[in-house]
Fold this protein.
Amino acid sequence: MKPLMSSVGMETRRKILGDDWVDTNRHNTTEFDRAWQMYVTNINWAGTWSRNIIPQQQLSLINLAMLAASGQMQEFEHHFRNALLRTKVPLEQLRELLLHVAQYCGIPTGTDMFRIARRVLAEERIDVSGMDPLDTNYLYSLSDDAAGSSGKR
């Protein structure tokens, strides 16, 4: 008899989500949601994440953008943590993604994303003090001479 869950999907799911997450989900699976677990494992994890057409770091960034844009902040938090710890997306790329998503999805979404990111970074004890400052001089200036030589604002 063919197994109900793809072994490739389970392997990838464990790699990206972690054993604890997968084991908890499997332990809590009932007959009511067994088909959902099969679908997620066989279609999402075996059918997309395991194909390696798009590198897993990029899939993590894509997921974060889609989850934030659709307001799925609980899932966003989970995938942000996975991007940091499992797919190893560089902090600079995560920061850039959050800024980009906020530009298109609005300030409230950006505020939520950065709040979640700061919390996860603190919980995981990830030191961001070594990051290069983001150069924003080309965007705007906060200096007094920004109004020009006429002094008008």
Helices lie at 7-17, 19-28, 34-49, 56-69, 73-85, 91-105, 107-123. Residues 107-123 form the longest helix (17 residues). Residues 64 and 80 are 7 Å apart (CA to CA).
